[in-house]
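hey so i finally got around to running the thing on that chain from the lab meeting. sorry it took forever, my laptop kept dying and i had to restart like 3 times. anyway pasting the input first so we r on the same page abt which one it is
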Amino acid sequence: MKYTYYPGCSVKSTEIGYENSLKACSEVLEIELNELDDWNCCGATIFPKLNRKAYLLLSVRNLALAENYGKDIVTVCNGCLTALSKTNFYLQQNRDAFEKINRVLEKLGLNYQGKIKVRHFLEILIKDIGQKKIEEKIKKRIRGVRVAPYYGCQYSRPFGPEHPENPHYLENLLILLGAEVVDASFKTNCCGGILTIAEDNSHKLIKSILEDAKRLKADFIVTICPLCEINLQLFQKKIGIFIPVVYFTQILGYCLGIEISKLGKEIYSFKGLLK
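ok and heres what got predicted. didnt touch it at all, straight out
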């Protein structure tokens, strides 16, 4: 299956392990990800508060470029998923804004038609590839470990592919891989997003997530968003609660038999738990 891949900024820099594991899993599962040429930052989630027009232009340029590929656009970042999906929705509902944006795009030699879908790679795995094909490719399973799934707040809302309060694709995948999945009521709670950089109060959100994971005796947390992973890892020392955090593509890659050195540094923090 073929898709247009929009990486976003973080998986090309601090979270390169996420992208490495994504590409390794895609190769095994015969998923063709064609990276969007000349993509730009989507503006993430705080930029619309600063300049809404510029925010729309950042995202719609990516969407217009992607439409030329004729395939769904796929990302592994919840912030990118939200920014692109929100722009898509807003412009399709507001004809005046749609036309104004296209007049700007024309100067760049682009045209936006609003025909492309924005999707998370997790959805691709469950809905398009399917659990049966994934199971056929599994080489080993993660037995005897307790895993806390963590989606973050933007994957399933407001434009996500699952129930806004109770998504389940990640649990389905982890169970397929052999994990004991804990009932994490915090799985769609906010981690504070970009505000953790400047506001100590937002660290309370991270603390509550880590505390709940510990209370449930989870051996590690599995997430699907680079900013969530950064926040849950970065502030553990300050908060005083320690638990490994890993991307779902890294766990999947391990179970697909991919060499551990190709799955990113995060996996080394808990590889002793994997039997």
